[in-house]
Specification:
The protein has helices at about 15-30, 55-75, 90-95, 120-125, 175-190, 215-235, 250-255, 280-290, and strands at about 5-10, 30-40, 80-85, 100-105, 130-135, 165-170, 195-200, 240-245, 260-270, 295-299. The chain has a 10-stranded mixed beta sheet with strand order 3-2-1-4-5-10-9-6-7-8, sandwiched between helices. The chain is of the alpha/beta class and about 300 residues long. The relative contact order is 0.14. It has 2 domains: about 1-140, Rossmann fold (3-Layer(aba) Sandwich), CATH 3.40.50; about 160-299, HUPs (Rossmann fold, 3-Layer(aba) Sandwich). The protein starts with a strand and ends with a strand. The longest helix has 22 residues, at about 215-235. β4 (about 100-105), α4 (about 120-125) and β5 form a beta-alpha-beta unit. The chain has 8 helices and 10 strands.
Length: about 300
């Protein structure tokens, strides 16, 4: 099987942004790009179908437009197109089964908000066996880099340092897949990795001796350092900074993602493939973070 990154296309600006983000990532990894579009027959033609075309013809046109746009920007990249008559969730989940990464576009809630995890994207994120990256319309490769000086040509942007990757880490659960993705992302971008762990103090037990706040913090910090140690040894070139703070995990993590080039969060996998399983923290990040967000399934 050819290694590939898949991206969902639906004719929207968000879908095209996802295709170009996926193309940059595929080029970075040296793999192929698979653009996927699902269409559905209706009893009556949809309003956006031209009178001289069919629903399938309209779908073929949308997909080809995306392929042409990506190939124009990345002429050396291998780009495949998959048109399927199926439900969107089924088509994207099937593509994720064969990909190392799935990229989706997502609507923004406004100037200050992030992603709308609607019925399609929410179900795909909750079911995909591979990491899923959500990208907003208007996102470009330049957004992953630090601000460029005036007069910098587009071809010079890749030489500008990348913004940090930010990882939301919960040391209470096994998270090797999550750590592997975050360290690899920082390594490929030659940038730093900011690891954020937010903890909440459990209700006091009247029968147990009180633990000083400084001691609780030190215990959690040691757990974070222990979880990171083998990955820091594997990726010695990645500059890692750890932030451990007590508070509301979702709110604190969203606050810590300011200025990030990529935010990485996890979702626990479940035996059932029914329903979405993103968790409240990841849900908060998807709703409030402006940049690209990677959701990584882990045990």
């Amino acid at each position: 099987m050819i290694r590939n990154i898949a991206a969902g296309i639906d004719g929207s600006p968000e879908g095209l942004a996802a295709a170009h983000w996926a193309a940059h990532e595929a080029a970075r990894r040296g793999v192929a790009l698979n653009l996927v579009h699902a269409w559905h027959p209706h009893a009556r033609p949809m309003p956006d179908v031209p009178v001289d075309s069919t629903e399938r013809g309209r779908a073929e046109h949308l997909l080809q437009e995306a392929v042409d746009s990506v190939r124009a920007a990345h002429p050396s990249l291998t780009v495949a197109a998959r048109l399927t008559c199926n439900s969107t969730v089924a088509a994207l989940t099937a593509a994720a089964d064969e990909a190392e990464l799935l990229v989706l576009g997502s609507l923004g809630l406004g100037r200050t908000a992030g992603f709308v995890t609607g019925s399609v994207s929410q179900r795909v994120v909750g079911r995909a066996p591979c990491p899923v990256v959500l990208v907003r319309a208007g996102t470009s490769a330049a957004d992953e880099h630090l601000p460029a000086a005036d007069g910098v040509a587009p071809e010079e942007i890749p030489g500008i340092p990348h913004r940090d990757v930010v990882l939301g880490l919960d040391v209470g659960h096994p998270c090797d897949d999550l750590l592997a993705f975050a360290f690899d992302a920082a390594h490929r971008r030659r940038t730093g990795l900011r690891v954020v762990h937010v903890f909440r103090t459990p209700p006091a037990d009247p029968a147990a001796p009180a633990v000083p706040a400084a001691e609780r913090l030190a215990t959690v910090e040691r757990a974070v350092v222990a979880a990171l140690r083998p990955w820091c040894e594997k990726y010695p070139e990645v500059r890692v900074t750890e932030t451990v703070v007590e508070g509301r995990p979702g709110a604190e993590l969203v606050r810590a993602t300011a200025g990030a080039g990529l935010v990485v969060v996890g979702r626990r996998t479940a035996k059932s493939r029914l329903g979405a399983h993103t968790g409240p923290v990841t849900h908060a990040v998807l709703h409030h973070v402006r940049g690209a967000v990677a959701v990584v399934p882990h045990a």
